[in-house]
Design brief:
This protein is 22% helix and 28% strand. The protein has three helices and six strands, in the order ββββαβαβα. Strands 1, 2, 3, 4, 5 and 6 form a six-stranded mixed sheet that branches. β1 and β2 form a beta hairpin. α1 packs parallel to α2. It is globular, with a radius of gyration of 13 Å.
Length: 112
C-alpha cells in the first residue's frame, strides 16, 4: 500500500494544493510497518493536475488536512481513497495512526 501526504516544513500541510512536497510512504498493512519513504516535489499547482500525478506514483490513499471537493472527486474517479481533516503531524506518525486505527480526523479545512 502506498500513502501520499502533503507536507510543508516536515509536517502535514493543511492545504493540499499548496504544499511544498509530498511524502510518499510505502506500508505493509499486515505487519503495520513502514517499508519505504520518499519525498517528492509536485508539479506547479493547477486545478486537476495533482490527482493523476499522484495516481501515477502508485498511491492508493491520500491523507490530507483540507482538500477541495473537485480534487476529492478526481481522486475518487481514479480509485484513490482520500481521508481529510487530519491533524498537522509528521507523515510517519499519521501513517502509523492510520495503520493502528487511531487516526483522529476533524473537519475538512478546505471550503472550495
Amino acid at each position: 500500500m502506498r500513502i501520499a501526504i502533503p507536507v510543508a516544513g516536515g509536517r502535514l500541510c493543511m492545504h493540499f494544493g499548496h504544499c511544498e512536497q509530498f511524502a510518499i510512504i510505502d506500508v505493509d498493512p499486515e505487519t503495520k510497518t513502514i517499508t519505504n519513504k520518499q519525498v517528492v516535489t509536485p508539479p506547479p499547482h493547477q486545478p486537476g493536475i495533482l490527482p493523476p500525478w499522484i495516481k501515477d506514483l502508485g498511491v492508493n490513499l491520500v491523507i490530507a488536512g483540507g482538500m477541495g471537493a473537485r480534487a476529492i472527486g478526481f481522486f475518487n474517479q481514479l480509485g484513490v481513497e482520500v481521508i481529510v481533516g487530519a491533524p498537522s503531524k509528521e507523515p510517519e506518525e499519521l501513517v502509523m495512526d492510520y495503520l493502528n486505527g487511531t487516526l483522529v480526523t476533524g473537519e475538512n479545512v478546505c471550503d472550495h
